[in-house]
Amino acid sequence: MITIKDLVFAYDKGKEPVLRGIDLQIEDGSYVALVGPNGCGKTTLLRHLNGLLLPTRGTVLVDGLDTRDPKSLEKIRQRVGMIFQNPDNQIVGMTVEEDVAFGPGNLGLAPAEIRRRVRRSLETVGMVSYAQSPPHALSGGEKRLVAIAGVLAMDPCHIALDEPTSFLDPGGRRRVLGTIKTLNEQGLTVIHVSHDMNEITGADRVLVMDQGRIVLEGTPREVFSRLEQLRDLGLDVPVVTDLFWRLRRTGVDVPPGVLSVKDACWALSALIPHPREGQKES
Ligand code: ADP
Predict the structure, then answer these.
(1) Sign of CA dihedral 116, 121, 124, 127
(2) Which ligand 1 atom sits closest to the C-alpha of 40?
(3) Which of 2, 97, 115, 200 is the most exposed place for a label (fewest CB within 10 A)?
(4) What would the DSSP string read from start to end of the chain?
């Protein structure tokens, strides 16, 4: 579990804090989405999860380990895998295999164990056939998948991803989102920073940040029901959510926070009177 208590952080002493008192508990195995306008502090918060940044005030505990304790940092970084916004910054090997082996190699594991982890991680992200390819020749989506494999090879419990689908074409996006979902189903905690509300409808919990604070949180349905508040923050909701919100405003009896086309079909079919049992439809 990741526990954040009264986290305040300023990049420079005496400057305005970027994080202004965050209290948060992230349950093991949950899928948490973090959204908010540009510059509200999402990346800064994410970087606290594995001790890349340390609190100016307050604490960040990862499975009970305090990020401010230098003796815990190595363990924390192994537990919380981090996928940065630009996958090129995370590439270190000449081949995909070498790249994924870099992390476990640094842990001093036996070569057979490193090979096993590399294979398993590449299988999980569907990139085994690229093992000998040079990472720089891959597409944006494939590079992200290799970065995820590199993190998986460290055997983390939690994975934090900073806008993992930015600049990807729809195919690359689908593959990366599918992989994130699979990892969560396999038991990993996912913390997913996103600017696209459509891609986080499957999260267990959505946190909305503004100016260094969490201003709204709940299930996607609860959060997307607060459409006006989201709009005030410059955030868009999925088109279908917006459409149903407008229907409700015109007095149509549909539920709030409709998230998907499937939800929408159910909501609409519930409006149509069904023939009574035994009565034939004409
Ligand atoms: P978000 O991820 O929500 O876009 P960030 O966490 O990247 O927000 O940034 C929050 C604020 O911190 C912004 O005002 C940004 O300019 C500032 N900031 C980010 N990185 C640094 C840095 N290395 N030094 C100083 N200020 C920074």
Answers:
(1) negative
(2) 3
(3) 115
(4) -EEEEEEEE-SSTTSPPSEEEEEEEE-TT-EEEEE-STTSSHHHHHHHTTTSS--SEEEEEETTEETT-GGGHHHHHHHEEEE-S-GGGG---SSHHHHHHHHHHHTT--HHHHHHHHHHHHHHTT-GGGTTS-GGGS-HHHHHHHHHHHHHTT--SEEEEESTTTT--HHHHHHHHHHHHHHHHTT-EEEEE-S-GGGGTT-SEEEEEETTEEEEEE-HHHHHH-HHHHHHTT----HHHHHHHHHHHTT----S---SHHHHHHHHHTTSPPPPTTPPP-
Is any atom of ligand 1 closer than 6 Å to the C-beta of 211?
Answer: no
- Please work out whether the CB of residue 85 comes within 6 Å of at least one atom of ligand 1: no
Cβ(269) – ligand 1 distance below 6 Å: no
Nearest CA to ligand 1 atom 25: 11
Q: Is the CB of 13 under 6 A from ligand 1?
A: no
Give the model's pLDDT for residue 276.
Answer: 67
Q: Which domains does the chain have, with CATH numbers?
A: 2-226 (3.40.50.300), 238-272 (no CATH)
Confidence category of residue 258, pLDDT binned at 50, 70, 90? confident
168 alpha carbon – ligand 1 mean position (Å): 23
If pLDDT is split at 50, 70 and 90, which confidence band does 193 have? very high
pLDDT digits (tens, 9 = 90+) for 225-237: 898 899 999 998 8
Q: What is the pTM of this model?
A: 0.91
Task: Name the residue at shortest CA distance from atom 23 of ligand 1.
Answer: 11
- Smallest CA separation from ligand 1 atom 21, residue: 11
